[in-house]
Amino acid sequence: MGGLFWNKIFAAILVTGLAIFVIKEVSHSLIHSTQPEKPGYAIEVAKTQENTAPAEEVKQASLEELLANANVEAGARVAKKCVACHTFEKDGGRRLGPNLWDIVGNKTAHVESFGYSAALKNAGLTWSFENLDAFFTKPQEFMPGTIMGFAGIKKPKDRANLIAWLRTHSDNPVALPTIADNAAEEAAQIIEKTSEAVADAIDSAEVPSQ
Ligand code: HEC
Asked: For residue range 44-93, what is the model confidence (pLDDT) as tens digits?
C-alpha cells in the first residue's frame, strides 16, 4: 500500500464528486424549473407590490426563446405594417424602402441599387436576429440617421414573429435557434470544463511515492 494506492483512492473520490456535480449541473440546465408549485412548508410574508408581480414580468422570454416558439402566420400579420414601403418576394421591386427578399442573415444595405441613407450604407453590419430585433424596436435609436420612417414595434413577441416570417423569404433560410440546442450546448460546456478539472486533479494527485 504505497502512496500510489492512496493517490488512486483520492482520485476515485474526486472523480465521483465531480461526476455528481456534472449530473446536478446538467440536469439543472436541462430542466429549468424544478421548483414545486407549492412549497412543502408555507411562510407567510406580508405581500408588497413587488412580490405579487406575475412571474412573466420578472423574467422576460429571451429573443432566442421567442424565435424558437415563433408563429410565422402571426408574423405575416405584423408585416402588414411594412408593405407600404417594402416588397418581400424574390425580385420584388423597391417601394419607399428596398426589397427585403433574403434579408435575414444578409449584410446591411443589401440591395446595391437602392439609395440608402449614409447611416445604413456605412453600417457594415449583418442583419442577425439580434440586429433586426433591435432595429425593429426603434429604427432611429438602433440606426441614428436612417431614413426608414417607421416608429417601431413595441412587443418583443410581435418582433420575433415578424423575424421568423421574414426568414422564410429566402432560398436558404437561416436556422432558427432551438431551446433544446441551448441546453445541450450548456451541458456540453459543463462536461468539458469538468473533465479538464478531473484531468488536472489526477495529474496533481500523481505525486511519485517514496
Ligand atoms: C415609411 C416607409 C417604411 C416602412 C413603413 C418600413 N420601412 Fe423598412 N425601410 C424603409 C426605408 C426608406 C429603408 C432604407 C433606410 C435607410 O436607408 O436608412 C428601410 C430599410 C429597411 C431595412 C434594411 C434593409 C437593408 O437592405 O439593409 C429593413 C430590414 C427594413 N427596412 C425592414 C422593415 C420592416 C420589417 C418593416 C415593417 C415592420 C419596415 N421596414 C417598415 C422604409 C420603410
From this structure: 655 555 555 555 555 789 999 999 999 999 999 999 999 999 999 999 99
Q: Which is nearest to 171 in space by CA: 91, 83, 86, 70?
A: 91
Atom of ligand 1 nearest to the CA of 107: 27
One-letter amino acid for residue 148 of the chain: M
Q: Where are the domains of the chain?
A: 1-32+179-210, 71-167
- Give the span between the Cα atoms of 204 and 208, in whole angstroms: 10
Fold of 71-167: Cytochrome Bc1 Complex; Chain D, domain 2 (1.10.760)
Identify residue 141 by its one-letter amino acid code.
E
From 148, 168, 174, mutation site for ligand 1 pocket: most ligand atoms within 8 A of C-beta? 148
Pocket-testing residue among 86, 132, 141, 163, ligand 1, by greatest number of atoms within 8 A of Cβ: 86
Give 5-26 as a DSSP string.
HHHHHHHHHHHHHHHHHHHHHH
- CA-nearest residue, atom 24 of ligand 1: 109
Q: Nearest C-alpha to atom 40 of ligand 1 is from which residue? A: 82
Calpha distance 54→57 (Å, rounded)? 6
Whether the CB of 119 sits within 6 Å of ligand 1: yes
Predicted confidence (pLDDT) per residue in 5-54, tens digit: 777 777 777 777 777 776 677 666 665 555 556 656 665 655 555 555 55
